[in-house]
Amino acid sequence: MKSHGMIPFLDLVTPHLELEEELVAVFRDCIRNAHFIGGNMLEEFERDFAKFCDAKHAIGVANGTDAVRFALMAGGVQSGDLVITVPNTFIATTEAISQAGGQPVFVDIDEKTYNLDPIKLQQFLENDCRREAGKTVHTKSKRPVTAIVPVHLYGQMAAMDRILDLAAQYGLMVVEDSCQAHGAKYYSAKDKQWHTAGSMGIAAGFSFYPGKNLGACGEAGAVTTNDDNVAKKIRMLRDHGQVRKYYHDIEGYNGRLDTLQAGILHLKLKHLEGWNEKRRSLAKEYSRLLEGTEGVILPHEPSWSKAVYHLYVVRVAEREKLQAELAGSGIGTAIHYPIPLHQQKAYQRLGYRTGDFPVAERVALEIVSLPMFPQLTLSQQAHVVDEVRRLVTEEAAPELVRNESTLVGRR
After folding, report:
1. Counting CB atoms within 10 angstroms of each CB, which of 85, 121, 232, 255 has the fewest?
2. Residue 88 near residue 311 (C-beta atoms within 8 A)
3. Contact of 380 with 8, CB cutoff 8 Å
4. What angle, rounded to 10 degrees, do the helices at 259-290 and 40-52 form?
5. CB-based contacts of 312: which residues, under 8 Å, 6+ apart?
6. Distance between CA atoms of residues 189 and 207, nearest Å
């Protein structure tokens, strides 16, 4: 039997070894010029990342949480405002809402895409809110609802046409959480064109955490926007509220993107489209190989979507058992995310209960992320699929035997 060795869930070593000399050159340039904060290296990355996202501005910040937080603050979220998002996302999404002064309010997800369900969003706005003096107010809490944060989860954009239509109807801003969606695209039937993640809302937050499709060698993030005033406000927010050094128009934060990380990201940005294409190819092959496997629900990519597969997530009934068996075979997996946010201890104060968001709760018990990174070989991928199919088939076999035994007893 051929040995495939350990197959990690994510390989962060190989791509950096492939780019090692270029990465060292970036570091060498920083130390020789003492450009550690700001400067040309940062400006060049911001310019080219904005272009990549089809946005007018990109503003580098310290991390993805700051990116979403600053975007909400610059967009106008005030203390006590309600901000709509989904319960199946990393807590950074809702931390950013809380840190901007808002309070998260959840709407359930679409069971196929795992993104914000626009039908449920409409139901929430129609049934739980009312229009009052030109504002949308949550009927129960009496708080204003001011923003929607759709999360482009796993590298696939949410159904933005309908979300933006509802936002316009109810006077809400839309801030895209694009932290997993670098380069993802959405076809707008309204505009009759493709849009890139980070170009459709008033602003968007990106994370460059090392494991992202575009990852730094440490913490990093960016905000994209087409609004000049929002861009100006974010530049102030990230740098202690300064318009220029020691002239503070507002209280801000220490949320700058380090020049070294900007240089690393600028270097990697040249490879991003190729890496994304490799992810798409691997996702297509996963789906081809796993198609028809009983007990495995595959990712759904609508015709209006060009996902970049930050993660390849399947659903199975015995998720923990499958993970343990795969680990025993040297195959790494992960869960994104095991507990919906409304069930987390951190958000008990919001008053949600189990059963409030049944789709997110059901999905959270079944999802498992398979190995996905551009350097994954077809041989490794085929071995992952073989093991998944073998294990889910073995899991189904005892149930089949029990059912057949029951039928025999009834004859």
Report:
1. 232
2. no
3. no
4. 30
5. 154, 282, 283, 286, 299, 369, 370, 371, 372
6. 28
Report yes or no: 201 and 176 within 8 Å, Cβ to Cβ.
Answer: yes
Residue ranges of domains in the chain = 14-269, 273-410
Cross-strand partners of 37: 258
In terms of phi and psi (left: phi > 0; alpha: psi -120 to 50; beta: otherwise), the region of 76 is left
Q: Cis peptide leading into 337, omega within 30 of 0?
A: yes
Beta bridge partners of 135: 132
DSSP 177-234: E-TT-TT-EEEETTTTEEEETTSSSSEEEEE--TTSSS--SS--EEEEES-HHHHHHH
What is the rounded distance in angstroms from the CA atom of residue 175 to the CA atom of residue 6? 39
Residue with tokens 């997530």: 313
- Residue 206 host element (H or E): strand 203-207
Asked whether the beta carbons of 112 and 43 are under 8 A apart, the reply is no
Topology (CATH) of 273-410:
Aspartate Aminotransferase, domain 1 (3.90.1150)
Q: Which of 117, 139, 143, 140 is nearest to 130 (CA)?
A: 139
**CA–CA dist 81, 92 (Å, integer):** 18
**CA 153 to CA 305: how far, in whole Å?**
12
Strands (E), 236-311: 242-244, 247-248, 305-306
Give mean pLDDT in consecutive 10-residue pieces for the chain, a chain of 411 residues.
77 97 97 93 98 98 98 97 98 98 98 98 98 96 98 98 98 98 98 98 98 98 98 98 94 98 98 98 98 97 98 97 97 98 98 98 98 98 98 72 44 36
CA dihedral over 387, 392, 393, 395, signed as positive or negative:
positive
- CATH code 3.40.640.10 for 14-269: yes
Taking the alpha carbons at both ends of the chain, their separation in whole angstroms is 44
Structure tokens at 118: 């626009």
147: β partners: 83, 173
Query: Position of tokens 């989860």?
Result: 153
